[in-house]
Amino acid sequence: MRQPNLFTSNSKASLLSTVFQTATRQRIRGCAKTALGFVLTLAALDVAINLLFPYPSDPLNTSPGAMNLYFDYGRSIEGKVTRQLGPTDETSAPIARPGWLDARLGEGQPVEPIGQNLLVAVYGMSFAANTGKAMAQLDPNLTIRIVAGPSAPPSYSFAAYEADRGKHKADVVLLGILASSLKGMGAMTGMTWGAEVPAPYTFPKYSLEQGRLKAVQPQVTSLAQFRTTMRDRPQRDAFVAQLQQHDQFFNSFVFEQNWLDQSALVRMIRRALAKSHQDNITSQIHTPDGFNPEWEQVPVLKKIVQEFATTAQKDGKLPIILLFNDRGYDDHLYRLLQPTLEQNQIPFVSTHEIAPATDGTNFVGDGHFTEAIDRQIAQKVLALINEKRDRTSTPPPGLTQAP
Amino acid sequence: MLFNSIEFLVFLVIVYTLYRVLPFRGQNLMLLVASYIFYAWWDKQFLFLILLITSIDFCSALIIGRGELTAKQRQLPSLVLILSSFFCVTVQWEAIRFSLNPMSIAIEWGRLFPQESIGWFVFLGSIAAVTLANSYYPKLIALPEQRRKNICLGLSITVDLLILAFFKYFNFFADSAVSLLQSVGLPANPVALNILLPVGISFYTFQTMSYTIDVYRRELEPASRFSDFALSVCFFPHLVAGPIVRAADLMPQFVLPRTITFDQTIRGLYLILFGLFKKVAIADGVAGSVNAVYNSTGAVSWIDVVAATLLFTFQIYCDFSGYTDIARGVAKLFGVELVVNFNLPYFSKTPSEFWQRWHISLSTWLRDYLYISLGGNRKGSLNTYRNLMATMVLGGLWHGAAWNYVLWGFYQGALLCIYRVLGIRDSKRSTQSKNQSSFNLKRFLSSAGATLIFFGLTCYGWLLFRANSLDQIVSFTRILFTDVGNLSLSMPKPTLSGLFGLTVLILYELTEYSINKVHFYRQYPALLRGAFYAILTLLILMGTSNAPAQFIYFQF
Predict the structure, then answer these.
(1) CA distances from B326 to B2, B236, B309, B338 (A)
(2) How near does any CA of chain B get to the CA of A392, in Å?
(3) Which ipTM score applies to this complex?
(4) What is the pLDDT of residues B320-376, one digit of tens each?
């Protein structure tokens, strides 16, 4: 027999409604719990990263550890460089010291050749310095004077060469140009375009006016001045304003220090934004096919190269341009400058023939050339110097000629 | 507009907000316009190709299925075709420049409507084609049914294939023909046209082809509304890199109003998060290492080739399945379900199992429209092998116009044939797991061995796929066999996000595989799930500073 229906339609609806409400409540509670787990874990991870991988506060500590460095890349540039500063130059971080175009430029470097040696002055970055050192190893009759800044762009190298003129008796002057540093010509300091590991040294921003080079000089030109500037708000603001106006790579969010530096997660976001900002600018300067000849600094670079050669020749020195085509740049730098160099008969050595940038075995892990490649480049430069100066070089015993 | 870009996030928020406030028909129209904007972000000129294919296939399917078109069904595609040729190809929008500060618009009229441009040719050609089609239409519908159907199907497939062949394969076949002629001593001059590859062309042509074929086979009713069909073709989540969605799966979801469930939204957000994790943390995180070896012109060692190929195996999986996950997740936010395209492919033990787990929408397409049409396995062993080889070689060629893709397809076909000859069949996991009550070490070891062997074979296949030239294939293969044990690694290390991400992914997939449950993570307490999402987010954040690369499958 059929059982009587004990529920009215109203009570059915109310039961359904109760079931639905309970399910909804459970879902909302589940979501809230998930969100709580999400937020708590993120907060815990943030704290854990800061506790486990703190960046050493001592500016002289140059080995912070790979993970500590990794989680600090996204700190604001200002946060990183102020941490590099000690009370004196000597107690400041090693990366903060080199490259300043001040009275100490070239300090400790030979100013004249030793005995019958030939003095070669090298301007550039680590690649150029490595070539210079390899040249000295290959030819004991050479004295090398090296003036270099970390990953220095050509505008720095040229400014350093100009500032160093008359301070030495070099017979040969080498100007190193690194493909990956070319974009730095749009900047005024190693801080802005090398945001992850900023080097605070500054350099002029060049432009062309009626076919002549015009330079905007940085407001800060020495480490001591930089220290003072970063501690004095109005001076610091004026320096930042100059960068904002003339430095293509300057970005306020990436540069200026604030409380967000305390969060490891925000630092990662800042790092991504900094990278994206830099990539956006870089993509206008360099593409996988080569450098953009339309970039405003390309004619400036060509003029710098010409000016370097003309003034060196006027001073009775042999100018040589070193083109370092590093990883990711194939022979792009060579292709960009070859016409200018050949038209103006400026002696040059390009690494693309010696060590193709597409061959990973030519490089060590940090992106520099291997020692063997440095020797090959040095040998090519030596051969050029010997040819132009009508001399011969004898390698010291134990050092064979590179293949 | 990459899925992992800020522009896409802004785009998605705007589209989603509009979607939630609009009525059903407005939602569809808005999604259609948004999808066209999404595509035009890459190249507005090629939007014309999509509209051309959409118009032709819409009309063809209706004539095949219903025997005629209503006046509106004829007028709308005709108008769309003419207007799109004018606005997408003829007008050069770059000639209009906007400035917000100060607010101004500058138009270079000479550039906006260039006098000598292929755009005018396309525009006039479109008018002529539309006029011709409309004047031929009465004759067409007067033809006997079967003949009319055959003509319409033929027209639809020919146009789709011609467009695909021209834009994707013209230079490849022209170059190959010239090389062949030159190799036998015949004079031949290289003929290369500067043809750009429209993004996603292989995906949307295959999709529209399957639509007319399904209608022809009476497996699907043709769409009555142009906008419904157009939306199923160009729905932005799957437009540029799949999955290849059949009209039968997608169109019904656009014809009727959709309801977005709470679970669907949550699952959609999870898929987006997981897809971003695969793409940003892993695929982009290992890309630099892979490129350093495969783009090297210098000497590489055995360990370089092995490590780079292994990393590429995961890169391509994370890149493509990551894209699919995001596409499926985004579609779910709009209440639309896209097909599952990947199902733990690297746990396959045989090639046929692999193709049931990898790019499932392509492999089922090839099976249904090519392999079965060729006869499948119905006409004896030899014909089966021939059909398998033909299907896989064409499948390889689908991926790109280069010999290494052909070789990869050939390799996959050969693996299918060899496993078939050896009688190695797919295991039936679901039934096995029911029958297996206790752990069997022997079975476990044989299963793990079979998986590892096939994984190794898959990796070698990816070497063929990733290689930049046939010379590189030869050289890397030689290194693999003659330089064994050379552990001098010159490949740069993958990024931290790549390494951590890979570890998390492998553990995740191992768990999913052993539990045999897709949504296994849902059984864990909510707090724990939140923690897992936080770890994925952290890895994505770590990966955001990797060099962002375009999705690999965009080029196909």
Answers:
(1) 11, 11, 25, 11
(2) 32
(3) 0.75
(4) 999 999 999 999 999 999 999 999 999 999 999 999 999 999 999 999 999 998 888
Could you check whether the bond before residue B243 is cis, i.e. omega within 30 degrees of 0? Answer: yes
Verify that A130 and A241 share a domain, yes or no.
yes
| Residue B301 identity (one-letter amino acid) | S
Q: How far A269 CA lies from chain B's nearest CA (Å)?
A: 6
Looking at the structure, do residues A45 and A161 belong to the same domain, yes or no?
no
Choose from B528, B541, B550 for mutation: most chain A CBs within 10 A.
B541
Return the pLDDT at A4.
Answer: 47
| Chain B residue closest in CA terms to A196 | B545
Residue A65 lies in a domain: no
Specify burial of residue B484 (Cβ count, 10 A radius: 0-12, 13-18, 19+). exposed
User: Which residues of B are designated catalytic?
Assistant: 399
Tell me which DSSP letter residue A361 carries: G
Beta-carbon contacts of B10 under 8 Å, excluding residues fewer than 6 positions away, are none
> From the CB of residue A128, how many other CB atoms can be counted at a distance below 10 Å?
24
B298 CA: distance to closest CA in chain A (Å): 4
Asked if B9 reaches chain A (Cβ–Cβ under 8 Å), the answer is no
A367, HSE (Cβ side, Cα atoms, 13 Å): 13
**Statement to judge: residues A29 and A169 lie in one domain:** no
Please report the pLDDT score of residue B192 as a whole number. 62
The 10s digit of each residue's pLDDT in A376-386 is 999 999 999 99
State whether A26 and A118 are in the same domain.
Answer: no
Please report where in the chains the tokens 């010696």 appear, as a residue: A354
CA B472, CA B408: separation in Å to the nearest integer?
14
User: Is B113 a residue whose pLDDT tops 90?
Assistant: no
pLDDT of residue B293: 92
Residue length of chain A = 403
Q: HSE-up of B109 (CA within 13 Å, CB side)?
A: 0
Q: What separation in angstroms does the CA of A226 have from each of A156, A234, A251, A367, A392? A: 17, 13, 19, 29, 45
Q: What is the mean pLDDT of residues A92-113?
A: 89
**What is the rounded distance in angstroms from the CA atom of residue B528 to the CA atom of residue A32?**
12
pLDDT for B196 equals 73
Q: Kindly report the three-state secondary structure assignment for every residue of A130-190.
A: HHHHHHHHHCCCEEEEEEECCCCCHHHHHHHHHHHCCCCCCCEEEEEEEHHHHHHHHCCEC
Q: Is B519 on the interface with A (CB under 8 A)?
A: no
Residue with tokens 């003129």: A165
Direct distance between the N- and C-terminal alpha carbons of chain B, in angstroms, rounded to an integer = 17
Residue ranges per structural domain of chain B: 24-258, 259-341+494-556
**The pLDDT of residue A402 is above 50:** no
The answer to whether B291 touches B467, Cβ cutoff 8 Å, is no
Q: Do A38 and B534 touch (CB under 8 A)?
A: yes
Counting Cβ atoms within 10 Å, is residue B8 exposed (0-12), middle (13-18) or buried (19+)?
Answer: middle
Number of domains in chain A: 2
Where residue A276 sits, what CATH number does that domain have?
3.40.50.1110
| Rg (chain B; Cα; Å) | 25
| Cis, peptide link before residue A110, omega less than 30° from 0 | no
Helix (H) or strand (E) holding B202: helix B201-216
> Domain residues for A142?
94-389
Residues A164 and A25 in one domain: no
